[in-house]
Amino acid sequence: MSFSNYFNPVADASVTFNGANIHLDTLGSNAVRDAETLNSRAPGVSSSQINDLTFQAKQGEVVLVLGKQSSELFKSIFHGNDNLCYSPEGSVRFKDYEYKQYSKKCPQEIIYNNEQDVHFPYLTVAQTIDFAIECKFKMPLEERINLRNQLLEEFGLSHVLDTFVGNDFVRGVSGGERKRISIIETFISNGSVYLWDNSTKGLDSATALDFLSILRTMADATRSVNLVKISQASDKIVEKFDKILMFTESYQVFYGTVDECLKFFHDDLGIKKDPNDCIIEYLTYILNLKFRDNEQYGSVISDSNTTTSEINTEEDLYHHWINSDIYRNLKSSIGADTPCVATIDAADIKPNFTISAYNQVRSCTRRAFQRIIGDKAYIISQFIAVIVQSLVIGSLFYDVPLTTVGSYSRGSLTFFSLLFFTFLTFADMPSSFQRKPIVKKHTQLYFYDNWVETTATIIYDYFFKTILVIIFSIILYFLAHFQFAADRYFIFLLFLVLYNITVVTLFTLIALFSPTLAISNLVAGILLLAIAVYASYVIYIRDMHPWFVWIAYLNPARYAMEAILTNELFNVRLDCTETIVPRGKTYDDLDFTHRACAWQGATLGNTYVRGQDYLLSALSYKYSHVWRNFGIIIGFLVFYICCSLFISQYITPLYTAENLDRWMFYAKKYIPFISQNSTKSHPIDDIDDSDSINTISSFDTPVLMDEDKEGKDHNIKHYQVERDEEIASQKHVISWKNINYTIGDKLLIDNASGYISSGLTALMGESGAGKTTLLNILSQRTESGVVTGEIMIDGMVLNNGSAFKRSIGFVQQQDVHLDELTVKESLEISCTLRGDGDKKYMDTVSKMLKLPSECMVRDLTPTEKKLLSIGVELVTKPSLLLFLDEPTSGLDSEAAVTIVKFLKKLSMQGQAILCTIHQPSKSVISYFDSIYLLKRGGQCVYFGPMQEACDYFVSKDSSLVYDREFDNPADFIIDTVGKSNAIAEKDEFKSVSNWSDTWINSQERLKTDAAVLDLEEIARNSGVDYTANVWSQPSYMKQLKVITKRQYLCTRRDKAYVIAKYLLNAGAGLFIGFSFWHIKHNILGLQNVIFLCFMSMCVSSPLINQVQDKALISKEVYLAREARSNTYHWSVLILAQNIIEIPLAVTSSTLFFVCCYFCCGVDTAPHIAGVWFLNYIVFAMYYSTFGLWLIYTAPDLQTAAVFVAFFYSFTAAFCGVMQPYSLFPGFWKFMYRVSPYTYFIETFVSLLLHDRPVICDQGEYVPTSVVGQQNCGEFMEAYVEEFGGMIMNKKAKSVCAYCTYVVGDDFLTTENMSYHHRWRNFGLEFVYVGFNFFAMFFGFYFTYVGKYWPTVFKAIGLIIPFRKARKLTKHSS
C-alpha cells in the first residue's frame, strides 16, 4: 500500500525550536490542583517554563519526546495560535515561517492524538473508519472501501469490521483495538506535523511495534513530521525513531539520534546503564535524576571521578548538554537567527477542510442515523413512550364532546400535546453532553467544523422527532375526535411538528451554551416552566403580570397553542346544555331568551357558544393569526438555529477540561463563597484515626519504595513480618480446567487450563487475545455469555462465590473512583468494608505507594489514580489471589518498574498475583515468576516459568533465534505466537503454525498438570479452609453507615450540584410566585390556583434529572467496581443515596415554598400554609424517590430521562387538571385514583380554596332575564338552591347577574375535590413515597442483579421489527 498516493503533507515540512523559552499552561493540565493543594504539594516549584528548547524535526523524521511536561508541550504546539507562548520572538518556526502565524493560517496541518479513546459506541468499526475517510478524502466509494480495508488489515482489525466500537459501558471491541481505531483516525487526518501523546497506551508490545513500523513507513512515504511521547517502549520500538528529544521540568538536556544519546549519557557523562534496563527506562531514570540514588546504578558507575559526581540538579545536566559537541553542531545546522518569512507561500497553504461543507453535513447526518439505529434501547424506549402515551391520552380524551366543557378538554389536550414533547426533548439533554468529547476530537482532526455536527444533529433530530410526532398525532387526534377534516388535521400536525423541532433546537442551544449538564438542567428547568406557564393557557394573556407578559411573546408554545386551538374551534358551535343558566326541572319550559350559557363568549338567548367567540373572549385567540403564528414560529426556529450554529462554533469549544479547570482555579482563588473548600479527610467510621497520613509534597512520579534507604520505609519491615506469617500460614492453589467462554456464536476463551499457587504470574497475549476476559472469568466477574469448565480451590470445585470474592483483590484497567473523595477516604472505605479495618496497615500501604492522602481523587494524576486503584485492593489483604488488569498501562517506565517491584515484593511475602501486562520491558518482565500466554482466540500457548518461556519456543521451532543479552523475552514470545500485521518485520520463518496444539501435546504441559496435582494435594493435606480466614463482611448497619457518610461527603463537596439544586428551586419559586402574583378572588383566580399548584409540581421534572445525574455517578462506580468485588450489599447504595438525597430535596423545596407561596396572595394562616408546606415536603420526597427509582431501573441515563418524561406526563394527565373527572371515560376513572398527582393536587388546591370568597368580575357574571313580575332572587331561587352560586342584585327585575360560585369550596365540588380529604391524602402520599422506595429495590434487582432487561428487549425485538443489528462481540484484551 502506497501512503503517498493518499496523504500529501506540506512539502519540506519541518518544526524548529531555536533557543525558545516555552511558557506552559500548567493550570489547564492534568496537574491542576486547587490553591491549597498546589501550595502543599509543590512548595517552591514554579517550573512552568522549558528553557532553551533547541531542536529541528525535519520532514520524514520520527522523534521520540521524553519529559514530564511533554503532554503540555504537545498541547501548546497543537494550539499554537492560542496557547503557545514563547520567547524570543521568531524562535519557533514551521519551515521558515513564524509558527503561530502558520498555525493560525493552516491549523489542520498540526494533528494531536492523546491517550483517550472516545468514539460513538454504537457505530461499527467499519462505519467509524468510513466516516473518517469520507471526511478527509475525495475519492469514489469503491476506492474509499479499499483504503479502509487496507488500513484495518495493517492494524489487525479486519476481523472486527462489523463489531460495535463500544466503550466502558457498551460492549464492543477490546481496549487495545479501540486504541488502534483512534490511531487510524489520526492517520487519516492527513496532516504535516503529528503529535502522538502516549498513543500506544493499552497496546501490547507487538502491536505497539506495528504502530511505530506503520508510523515509520508513513513518515518515509509522506514526509510528515512526527513527535511521539511513549511511556513504555522496547528497544526495538526506540530503534524506529530518528531522534530523541529530552527535557527535564525546566531545561532541555538532549536532542539527537539514539546512538548519539547513548554515547552522550553513557560515555561522555559516565552514567552507566543496567543491562536489564531498556533504553527508555535508562533515559527516564536520567531525567528523574535517579542515576545517583538508585542502588542498581551505584554498582555499575565506573568511579567517583566521572562527571556523574558533578550532576546533582537538572541545571547540571543542562550545562553539560549546551557544552557538548552535539549541541554546537545542532545550533550550527539550525543556522543563525534570521528573520521569519513574512508571507506564507501559496503552495504551503491548504484549505482547512478537504471536502465541502455540504458533504460534511451529509456525512455527519448519515452518521447520526447510524448511531441511533445501533442504540436499540433508546430508540425502543422513545417509540414505546410516544405510542403508549398517545394511546393513553387519546383514550383519556376519547371522543371529546363538542360542548362548552368539551372546549376546555380540547384546550387541555392541545396544551398537553405541546408539553409532552417539550418534556421528551428535555430528556435528550444528557446525550448532547455525551457527544461533546467525540465532536471535540473530530473537529481537532478537522474532519468537520463544529457547526456541521450541530447541523447534522438538528437534521437527524428533526427527522426522528417528526416521525414520533406523526405517530403521536395520528393516534391522539382521531381518538380524541378532533375535527375529521383533512385541512384541520394537517394544520394540527404542521404546528405540532413545527413547535417540536423549534423546542428541539432551543434545548440544543441550551446544551451547547452550558458548560456542564448540571447548569444545563438548571437553565432548562426554568425555561421549561416559562414555556408551560406562558403558553397563554395556564395564565391568560390579559391576566399575566405586566412584568412578565413579554415572556409570552417570546414563547413559541403560545403561538403554537393559539394556532392549533383556533384551527380546531373557530368554525364550530359549542353546545352549552351542560352549562346553561338557569336549568333544571323548574326551568324546562322556560324560553331560551331568558337563559344564557355560563361560559365565556356566551350571549343571552343562545343555546350554544360560537368557537371563535369563546377563543376571543377567554383566550384572546383569533383564527386570522394562524398563518401569522406560522411565520413567527419559523422566525423563532431560524433564530434558534443561527444561535446554535454560532455558539457551537465559537462558544462550546471554549468549554474544555483545561479551561474549566482554569476557571475553577481562579474562582476558588478570588471568590470567597467557594474559596474555602476544605478537602480534609473525614473518618468514615468511629474507629480512632490517630495514625494520620502525611501529605507527600511532590509532583514527581510516585516512587513506591526506596529499598536502598534505611529509615525511610515507614516501619514497613515490622508490618512485613506480620504479613509473611499471615500469608504463609495458608497456601492455596487456584486452578482452572477446560475453561470455554462464548458470547452468542463467538468463542472468546478456548479450552484454557492453568493454576496459580504463589508468586507473580504475567497473563500476556496480543490485543484481543482474551486476557481481560480470562481475568474476569477467574475472578467471577463475567456478566454475560456462557462459561463452561471448572474453577477449583485446592482441587475442589469452587462453590462459595461470595467468600471467594472476599478473598481476592481485583485492580481494574479503568481507574474507577469517586472524584469527591480524598485518597485516604477511598482507602478507608475499602479497608473497612472489604478488609479487617486495620487502619495501621492502610496507612502503611498509603505510605508505600506515596499517595497524597489529603488530595482529592479528581486532582490526582493518571499515575496516582492507578496507584490508588492498587491501594484500594491491597488494603483488603487479599488472602487467595490478587488480580491486576494492566496496572502499568499508560505509566512511564519508572512508574511501571516501581509498581512491578512492589508487586514482586508482595509475592515474595506469599501473595499470589495474576497480572495482565502490555509492553513490559526486559527489566519489568524479569520480576515475573511465571507467564500464562494466550493467542488470539483465547487459546493457551504456554504456561510455565518466565525464564524458560523463550527456550520453550526456540526448542519447538528451530528457525527461531533468541539473544539472551539483547532481546526482550516479552517481545520475543508475543512476536512468535502471532503477529498479524502485513507490515510487521518477519525476520524468521515460523514453521510452527499452531502454537496452541503444540502446547497441548507438549511435555511441558504434562509437567504442569502433574505439578498442579501435587500442589493441590499438599494444600488439601494442610487442612486449611480458605473460607475460614475470610474477613467476615461488616454488618448491614455498618455498611450503611460507611456508604451514607461517603455519599454525604460526595454531595457536600459537589458544590455545582448543590448550588444548582437550590438555585433551581429558588428561581422556579420566584418565577412561579411572581407569575401568579396576588391571585384574584374571581372565577379565573380559582383556575389560576389549580395551575399554580400544578406548575409547582412541574418543577420536579428538571429536579428529577438533577437527582438522576448525581445518583448515576455512584451507581456506575458500584456497578463497575464495588459490586464485582462484593464491597457491600446493593441495597445499601440505594438506602444511602436516599438518606442523603431526601433531606437535600426537603431543604431545597423549603426554599421553593418560601419564594413562591407568599407571592401569590393566598391564605397564610398556619393551618393552611403549614399543611400546604408539609404536603409539599412530602411531594419533594415523592419526586426524589421517583427519580431514583427510574435511574436504578433504567439501563442508562438517557433511557431514564425518557422514562421520566413518559411517567411524569402519564401521571400528570390523570390528576384531573387537564381533563375534568366528569369527562373521564369509564375505563380510565381508576387511573384518576391511581395517579399520585391526584392526591397532591387535591390537597394543594383544597387548602388554598377552602373558605376563599369568590367575587366575580363583570365579565364573569352570567346574564339571565326574569319572567313576569318576579325579581331576580325569586326567579333564580330554585337554581341557586340546587347548583349554588349567588345573584349580584336579587331585587333586580330585568337582567339578573349570576355568579357561579360563592366560595372556593363550591368550585372544589365541581372539580371532585374536598378540603376534608387533606389528611387522607397525606397518608396516601406517603404510600406513594413508599411505593417508589420499594420500587427502587425491585427495579435495581430487575436490571442489575437479575439482569432481565436483555430478555425484555429481546421480546420487544420479536414484536417490533428492526433492521438486524450488526454482529456484536467483545474482544477483550
From TrEMBL:
TM ranges: 377-398, 410-427, 462-482, 489-513, 519-540, 630-651, 1056-1077, 1089-1108, 1128-1160, 1172-1194, 1200-1224, 1322-1342
SMART domains: AAA
Pfam families linked to this entry: ABC2_membrane, ABC2_membrane_7, ABC_tran, PDR_CDR
Compartments where found: Membrane
GO molecular function: ABC-type transporter activity; ATP binding; ATP hydrolysis activity
Keyword Repressor (UniProt): no
Record keywords, A-Z: ATP-binding, Membrane, Nucleotide-binding, Repeat, Transmembrane, Transmembrane helix, Transport
Coiled-coil positions: none
Source species, domain of life: Eukaryota
PANTHER family: ATP-BINDING CASSETTE TRANSPORTER
Protein name: ABC transporter domain-containing protein
Source organism of this protein record: Tetrapisispora phaffii (strain ATCC 24235 / CBS 4417 / NBRC 1672 / NRRL Y-8282 / UCD 70-5) (Yeast)
